[in-house]
Amino acid sequence: MPGVPAEEQLAEAATVSAFTVMDSSRLSTFVISILLIVYGSFRSLNLEQENRDKEKEKEKLTGAPATENEGNMQTIDTCQAAFLPIGASVSLLIMFLFFDSLQMVFAICTAVLATVAFAFLLLPMCQYMIRPCSSGQKISFGVCGRFTAAEILSFCLSFFIVCIWVLTGHWLLMDALGMGLCVAFIALVRLPSLKVSTLLLCGLLIYDVFWVFFSSYIFSANVMVKVATRPAENPVGLFAKKLHLTGLMRDAPKLSLPGKLVFPSMQNSSHFSMLGLGDIVMPGLLLCFVLRYDAYKKSQVTMLDVGVPPPPTYVQKVTYFHCSLIGYFLDFDLMTFDPVYNYMYEEVLYFILVGLLTATVSSEGDLRRMWNEPFIVQSTPKNLDV
């Protein structure tokens, strides 16, 4: 800039960079995404333990040998991992081409899924709240099934929050519903091995790179950003207009669907940081798999140890989950220090996670076990020749 000393220009650039790094919206995005991944991973671990406890109780009552019961959890196999990016591409293209015709369907389906997912997120809190005054018995609702009082309460609260979101369209409620979707997906969907994890994340890497960087050359628009930021017509407002109703229902705003998390900046009220749910869920599935393997490995070591094992060193306390979490942290550092190219660094995230995890398990000698079937319990023979 002419007339301005070079020292002042450098000082101004450093100030802008510091404000960018400390921007509250980016800090909020980072903290919330880490918390969602950690909470969802440990929630999945607790669900597995609950399923094992139920099988043990069933074995005691019936005498039948316990079998692996996944409960409500879904395990992604190799075929599903290979075709998931293709299915996601087809869904994204349909939403881009036919959004105006199907936006009512998209809004209603999203509201239903968000209600169930947010009820899942609220369930532990509701269980803690009504534990003193509830026996835990399930109440029958006919063909709908049997539910505990905590499950009914969490569903009612979730339904109430979704109704407020539909009437107001507030970004904070949209974020809350998006958080519920993230936690539910991480906790209820499982990756069985590192091979499936690598196949899934590499496919999604190609999916993201194509739809973010190259879709504009074919469709004259960034398909990913267009679908993520496009608001849908409010179903309540449309029904109110058809029924000639007035008031709040008729003036219901357009809905920004909870396929992303947005956080406003305290430095600039018009600036929002946006992070797609896929950039939380997909790395979260890998970190959840790693946490489950850490717990499995610890349980196997505990069963094989004879006597009192020596206390673990600081190096041994660092698990694969910690290493993978560091990879996710590094990606957010890259996006923070260079926000102009944050889309590119979101793709680099998959390489960082898989590469760092593979290097770590290779040094520990667990790569072959994690690559194929890491959770198969090796049964020891009952009669051993001495």
From TrEMBL:
Transmembrane regions listed in the UniProt entry: 27-46, 81-99, 105-126, 147-167, 173-191, 198-219, 272-293
Pfam families: Peptidase_A22B
UniProt-listed SMART domains: PSN (SM00730)
Major localization class: membrane
Sorted UniProt keywords: Hydrolase, Membrane, Transmembrane, Transmembrane helix
Domain of life, per lineage: Eukaryota
Membrane disposition: Multi-pass membrane protein
InterPro entries attached to this UniProt entry: Peptidase_A22B_SPP, Preselin/SPP
Localization per record: Endomembrane system
Family in the record: Belongs to the peptidase A22B family.
Protein name: Signal peptide peptidase-like 3
